[in-house]
Design brief:
The complex is a heterodimer. In chain A, strands 2-3-1-4 form a 4-stranded antiparallel sheet, covered by helices on one side. Helices cover 40% and strands 29% of the residues of chain A. In chain A, helix 2 runs antiparallel to helix 3. Chain A has 3 helices and 4 strands. By secondary structure, chain B is mostly beta strands. In chain B, a hairpin with a 2-residue loop joins strand 7 and strand 8. Chain B starts with a helix and ends with a strand. Classes of the chains: A alpha+beta, B mainly beta.
Chain lengths: 97, 301
């Protein structure tokens, strides 16, 4: 019984420590649905990315990551530039946790 | 000999028509400065129907051109994109020769265009962009220029291909916001010589205004736009030359107004426009345009 409680406690601590890195990007230059496709395509192929949501009206891109995975800002910037747009800001977001 | 005279007669009557097929990317009837993402493809298929039947000559010419134009765009990087436009055409012409009415036609792969576009100005803001790009390319003689019928070899403008290499270049500027998009393009086409024929060089000025009709306001989940489109296409073409002699019944100035509709999604665009000539100041007996109908789709890959 004591061992089981310890195990549950350990798992809880481990789970709390496992970082979920979601990102909220502000992307400038994005003004029609046909353009957002390439942002979604380029970010979705990156390691650890679970989903990409583009909110056109706010020029916002939400990137949901797998647990423990991170995206370097330089890599995000490169992908957005390659898609033909300008990355203005990157914020870590807890929204999708 | 009689055949040759007849062919020459046809040639003189139809030379005014230079039926160029533009590779188009975002406005419906011409190009845009919007990006093609690095290592990505856009495929565009256009169905173009052209009708020319306002004839000032006694031949009462009636020409229709149906074309399927396949365009592939590839993003080398975020600034540089390359395009290939491969058209397939069907041309039919009827006219009165003497006391009888005759028809002549051709079909097949037409001349292809290959060009590159470089974006040298990009000002991005939240929900909007301003871009300026330059493009240049060649029209390669991939179409047949030796088709014939029972009257002999077809005149140059009725051939699927011209036989000549042409060069073209231009500038395009695009202002895009969430509610609307405006494009302007200025381009110049310098025609090469083939089969003793050189088409007149041509200036084009095009403008496009696209206004979002639907949805009226944007939601978080908005993924489809419907644009009302109004475009204007102006061209000024010099006289053609046959065996270095100016053809007085060719070239001139032409202005089209082109209303249209576009349905835009993330993955594809559906579009249609009709180009209506509102001013035709053509030289001599050059055949006037009735309309050009363009419809098609483009797909992101």
């Amino acid at each position: 019984m004591k061992k089981t409680v310890m195990l549950i406690l350990l798992l809880s601590v481990f789970s709390a420590l496992a970082e979920q890195n979601n990102y909220q990007l502000q992307v400038n230059g994005l003004a029609c649905p046909f353009c957002e496709y390439n942002i979604q395509k380029k970010l979705s192929k990156l390691d650890g990315v679970m989903s990409v949501e583009v909110i056109l009206k706010d020029s916002q891109v939400n990137v949901r990551m797998q647990e423990g995975k991170k995206l370097p800002e330089a890599q995000i910037k490169q992908e957005i530039t390659d898609a033909g747009f300008t990355l203005m800001a990157v914020r870590k977001s807890d929204e999708e946790k | 000999m009689k055949k040759n005279r007849f062919t020459h007669y046809i040639l003189l009557l139809v030379l005014p028509l230079m039926l160029s097929i533009h590779a188009k990317a975002a406005p419906i009837t011409f190009n845009t400065a919007l990006p093609v993402a690095k290592e990505s493809f856009i495929n565009r298929e256009q169905f173009v129907f052209k009708r020319f039947k306002k004839d000032k000559s006694l031949a009462d010419r009636d020409l229709s051109v149906n074309a399927l134009v396949s365009v592939v765009a590839y993003g080398v990087n975020s600034k540089l994109a390359v395009f290939a436009a491969l058209p397939y055409v069907q041309k039919d012409m009827s006219l009165t020769a003497g006391s009888s009415r005759i028809s002549r036609s051709s079909s097949g792969l037409a001349d292809s265009k290959f060009f590159a576009r470089y974006t040298f100005l990009q000002k991005d803001q939240r929900g909007q962009t301003l871009r300026l790009a330059a493009f240049a390319g060649v029209k390669a003689p991939t179409g047949s220029d030796r088709q014939s019928d029972r009257f002999g070899i077809l005149p140059v403008p009725l051939q699927s291909g011209s036989g000549s290499w042409d060069n073209f270049a231009g500038l395009v500027v695009t202002r895009q916001k969430l509610d609307y998009q405006i494009d302007f393009q200025l381009s110049y086409n310098s025609a090469g010589k083939a089969n003793q024929f050189r088409a007149g060089n041509q200036w084009n000025a095009d403008a496009s205004f696209q206004y979002r009709l639907f949805p009226k306001s944007l939601e978080r989940s908005t993924k489809h736009f419907v644009y009302a489109v109004l475009e204007a296409n102006y061209s000024n073409q010099n006289n053609n030359r046959i065996m270095a002699i100016k053809d007085v019944n060719s070239g001139g100035r032409l202005l089209y107004l082109s209303p249209g509709l576009q349905y835009v999604t993330r993955k594809y665009i559906l579009e249609a426009a009709i180009q209506i000539p509102v001013q035709q100041d053509l030289n001599g007996l050059a055949l006037e345009s009735d309309y050009i109908m363009t419809t098609g789709f483009r797909i992101n890959f």
